[in-house]
Amino acid sequence: LENIEYLLNGPGDTAENLFALVFNFNARAIAFVTLMLALAIFFTGFSSITVLSRMAYSMARDGAFPKSAYLRELDPDTKTPRRIIFMLLLLSSVLTLLPLISTTAYSAIT
Question: 56: phi > 0 → left, psi -120 to 50 → alpha, else beta; which?
Answer without folding.
Answer: alpha
